[in-house]
Amino acid sequence: MNISSIIFYAISALILGAGILAVTSVKIFRAAIWLLFSLVGIAALYFWMQVEFIAAIQIVVYVGGIVVLIIFSIFLTQNSGKEMAKPAKGKVIFSALAALFGTAFVHNLIVHYEGFATNSAKPFNPNVAEIGTQMLSTTSHGFILPFEVVSMLLLAAMVGCIVIAMRPNNEIKN
Amino acid sequence: MSNYLYILWIPLLPLATFVILGLFGRKYLSGIAGILGTASLLTSTILSFVAAKQYFFVDGKVNGIFQKIVALKYTWLEFSPNVSIDLGIIVDPISVMMLVVVTSVSLMVHVFSLGYMKGEERFATYYAFLSLFTFSMLGLILSANIFQVYMFWELVGVSSFLLISYYFNKPSAVAASKKAFIVTRFADLGFLIGILILGFYGGTLDIGLLIERFTSIHSTQFLSITSASFLGASMLTWGLTLVFIGGAGKSAMFPLHIWLPDAMEGPTPVSALIHAATMVVAGVYLVARLFPVFSMDETALTIVTYVGASSALFAAVIACTQTDIKRVLAYSTMSQIGYMMFALGISKNGGENGLGYMASMFHLFTHAFFKSLLFLGAGSVIHMVHSNEMKDMGGLRKLMPVTHVAFLIACLAIAGIPPFAGFFSKEEILTAAFHENKIVYGIALFTAALTSFYMFRLYFNIFWSKEATVAAHAHDAHTSHDDHSDHGEGPWVMKLPLIILAACAVGVGFVPFSQLVTSDGAALETHVDVVFSIAPVVLSVLAILLAASFYKNKNEKSDKVASAFGGFYTAAYKKFYVDEVYIFITKKIIFPFIGQPIAWADRNIVDGFMLLLAKTTAKISESIKGLQSGKVQNYALYFFGGVAVLSILFIYIWK
Amino acid sequence: MNLTLLILLPLLTAVLILLAKGLQQIRVIGLTGAVAQLGLAGWLLKSFLAERAAGNNAAHLFESNQTWFKALNINYHIGIDGISLAMILLTSVIVVAGILVSWTMDKLSKEYFFLLVLLSMGAYGFFISLDLFTLFFFLEVAVIPKFLLIGIWGSGDKTKSAMKLALMLMAGSALVMVGLFGVYYNTHTFDIVQITQQGIPVGVQKFFFPFAFVGFGIFAALFPFHTWVPDGHASAPTAASMFLAGISMKLGGYGCLRIASLMPDAAHAYSWIIILLATIAIIYGAFATMMQTDLKYINAYSSISHCGFVILGIGMLNKTSINGAVIQMVSHGLMTALFFAAIGMIYSRTHTRIVAQLGGLLKAMPFISTVFVIAGLCSLGLPGFSGFVAEMTVFMGSWQNPDGAYRLATILSGASIVVTAVYILRATGRAIMGPISDEHALLADATWNEKLAAVLLIVGILIIGLAPFLINHLIMPSTDAIMAQMEKVNLLK
Amino acid sequence: MQEIPLSQILFVSTALFFIGMYGLFTRRNLITMLMSIELMLNAVNINFVAFNKFLFPDNLDGLFFTLFIITIAAVEAAVAIAIIINLYRSHNSIDVDDATEMKY
């Protein structure tokens, strides 16, 4: 049990704990914060896996962008203090069962699938330069095309969101 | 053997008249329709007399037997190589005799109708249907193929349907025609199945071949048909009995006779032609045509005998009680045909013991003349009195001398009084019955007495009993200025046929019938055995005197005797309730217990099943609708359920 | 003589009708199209007989074959034999009569005539196609117009019966599709000629025959699936019910015959069920007719009974009975068309079809009443009309089978001629004869177009009735071909 | 790093994924549903990175997948929130069970 596995277990405990709380907490704002912690935990996992760039991106985009966006939307739509409506009893049980079934099923698969080598033979330390060059290279593993498509997507999304959210005030029901 | 193809013209002329009058009759030819019809029939009659003379006297016998000539054979509808309906003409003693009978009686009726039906609105259609009937009857007589007999059999049925419902605005006439057609159609079903049996086992539909194959004991067809059996009886018996049922239906034999009295709804000349002389004897003719085959089978002949005898007796008893003169004559026809049937039934085939066959044909020959005379006489009486009931008549002998004399001759003939035709033919039947079957002879004798009783009851009621009532006088005054008819009997066209037929009723008895028409074509020696014929003649005379005492002048004696019989009399008057049985069966059993349930079942069960399908689909879609609840999370759950199931399926079950 | 002409002509008429303006133009175009089609059919008959006389006794004449859809081996293979030619003649006569009868149809007349011609085109295509897929294609073309004709121009609860008719016919064609594709799956071809040569394995036949036969049976009012016939016919307009009974039921009968000849072993195996259903249809139909009060229902139910003869003829699987079945199809087509035409004429004048309310029409409308009586007598099986010839051939054919149960079936079907006589005479006695009510007394008799239509159909009935050897000579070779092909299977029970 | 086998990481990501799914099924508030979706997406990212690191160390496809998923997640969140705001305006509540117009 060396230090890195301990760190790994800690990080995964953080991720899963924050996740469960994000999903079950009654106050919406608190749920958002738990989501924040869970995402930070995931970034830590990336760091643990030595893919610093992805971790950085994770922190910048997810934690910085999306969670903040969600929190803004919480403020926009309702006061955060109010308790959220509890879900129906039957639905909770049923979805919990579904989730447990899912985990058990996939767990069973993973355990029985011997293809995963216990640990990687070769070291894996991608540096950012490599990522950059491959991102824009047009050769075999080049990702230039998805890169361009994603940029188009972002533009479309921006325009879309503005159009949807920009309805003139007079139509707002009071 | 000279060529007999010209016989083809005899049926074709009435057919031509039917087509012409049928298509153009109503608008253009209504004036001369009668003349046209009678003229064409006159030529047919002449042709048939010429053919008869040529067949019987010019060509005569070949080594003692009259040849059976098939003048024409044309494949009309081919079922399989050897089984096919081919239209053909067969010329042999009975068919030539029938040609003469049918054409002459039909001519008399045509002439009589010129007067009787004058002033009718559908005069042309009447003559069209009359010629259609004559065509189909002649066709039936001449047909050489058993299916061709069936075809003309149906055509005769339809033309009688059309003629009975001539006065179509009278609901009773329509009902009567419907009844006649359905009852005969029911019998024709038996005939059809009989044909199918005989055709299948005989391997052919041609009558000549059938007779040839079924009469030789060791022919393969005969062995096959007698070996196959169904419910105990051999197929030959089944085939022949079914064919006889077809004949019995048309000839109004006992169980299937209910349509004949109602058929009197049609105009009287029609009854004279159809329900006296021609159509009703078709059954007898059919049995005679297939007689060699019938003679091979004992049971079939016994059935024929006893149905004939029972019909004769049954009809004679009812005839004594009827008040409508046409109904009396109808029942008397049924009785006389019963005579012919049982004469055929007791006869054997060929040689000396073929006497019954010859006697039956002879009686058919004579009966046609005096029965049509009786009907035409009744027609002229009705024409004058405008009612069928006896009570409206009486004392008409002074007003209608010609009809009176003719009617008297006919009554004497049917009663079997010596010089008249009826005596000779009935004598032959009684001798044949005496030799073959004593019971039948007893019935025949008793029926003969009954016949003369009810005939003279009719005669005295019409011409004697009370003085001519006022109605007759008024009628008399009204018609006096009518062209030159002096006695209110109607024009000469109505009297001429009466006179001719009266002459025939007398003369026809002396025709040397036994030389000409016998079961095997050879001549048959018959002599009038005086000793034997005393019994029937004496009985008839006694019956006549009894009738005279009852009805000569109005008295209650007849009523007293009637009340003496009590229930039996009323039962006989009500035709022994046979009609009611039939109505009960159709109205109470067939319609409510078979028709209604089937119609209901079709509406509710079979149709209901289809509607049920529609309803169940509606219900299923109603229940499935719940799934589309609009709640996004439910959809997500169903989605996850689907994924889970599929993944299990594909990973674990379907490797 | 290219057979596609038979399809192009109605198509051309249909298009011209769509372009025409006003009822007068529409009906004239419709009539000329139909008469031209009749002429074409007549000329086809002449050249067919000439071809046969010249000794060319190939199974199918005037064949032409274009590939239509390479991948599934579907090709537009058309050709005719005696039976399909008889059907084409029947259809062309009925189309002319139908158009003549609907001469005064003023409600949406353009669409009405267009649909009538489209329906007839479907029928022509069906009869000439030798490729199962093309056969099925034209079968479908014919179903849609029926639904619209009844749904829009019908009477009574027309939508319900139109819906029922369309759904049941669709179910029928679905079953047919299953059967045909089953055959295709095993023989990899839709071509009838090839399939007959190749032969289908018995197991496959046994499995797919019921589908195809019941599918076509629904078109031909096979017993349990006949319930669309009374409602469909009763609420259809006159010309549509003439087409329905005269043409669309013949599609079913002809289809059943083709299926039976394609799968002979299965036909023999299932023949007892077919005969059982046919006999029930005949007797059941006859008794059900007896209880009907509406003229159109009487004729609809009697069509079920008469179509039962067709199925009986096919079920017996011997030469005479199949011959009888084909003649019965033609004779029943003409006869029911005539009956519906007469009922239509009566209805257009008295505005009632209930027999009890009619009476004594003979005095007011002699021509229509005679037509009614002729149609009645023909369906009665009176010699001299086509009904007799057809039924007697079927009886003779079905009597050939010495098996007791088959004999019983024949006797029962024979008994139907009595029940038919009862209901026909009840209807005639009640509607045509008897005392006339005063408002019916002053009704007008048939107009020229109705007279022409009736005469045309009566001539057809008389030709078959008086000279059956003509139609026999036309049909016999093709029934021989079918029977020879069945014998090849030497399973003739 | 060596002791933790790939399967451990996959357990974590599966657990995270099904937690997200649970949230998606039970949460009545659209925004919290959005959050649970984010969790599910992150679980997938973990998988990609783990597979790339352990099974295909010499090329970087897994990483690029994660990158693109992150961007798309951002886009998706933005659009979702726009819709939520719109929904809030029309329904005055963003409870998922109120928007059932698409019902039968």
Give a quick precis of the structure.
In chain A, 71% of the residues lie in helices and 0% in strands. Chain A is mostly helical and 174 residues long. Chain C is globular and about 70 Å long.
How would you characterize this protein structure?
The complex is a heterotetramer of chains A (174), B (655), C (493) and D (104). Chain A has 6 helices and no strands. The mean pLDDT of chain A is 85. Chain A folds into 2 domains: 132 residues, NADH-ubiquinone/plastoquinone oxidoreductase chain 6, subunit NuoJ (Four Helix Bundle (Hemerythrin (Met), subunit A)), CATH 1.20.120.1200; 31 residues. Chain A is an all-alpha fold. The longest helix of chain B is centred in the last third of the chain and has 47 residues. In chain B, a hairpin with a 2-residue loop joins strand 3 and strand 4. Chain B is mostly helical and 655 residues long. In chain B, strands 1-2 form a two-stranded antiparallel ribbon. A two-stranded antiparallel ribbon of chain B has the order 3-4. Chain B is globular, with a radius of gyration of 31 Å. In chain B, 72% of the residues lie in helices and 3% in strands. With 493 residues, chain C is mostly helical. Chain C has one domain. Chain C has 20 helices and 2 strands. Chain C has a two-stranded antiparallel sheet with strand order 1-2. In chain C, helix 1 runs antiparallel to helix 4 and helix 5 runs antiparallel to helix 6. The longest helix of chain C is centred in the N-terminal third of the chain and has 32 residues. The radius of gyration of chain C is 21 Å and the shape is globular. The mean pLDDT of chain C is 90. Chain D has a single domain, classed as Helix Hairpins, CATH 1.10.287.3510. Helices cover 74% and strands 0% of the residues of chain D. The longest helix of chain D is centred in the C-terminal third of the chain and has 31 residues. The chains are: A mainly alpha (174), B mainly alpha (655), C mainly alpha (493), D mainly alpha (104). The interface between A and D is large, with 90 and 74 residues.
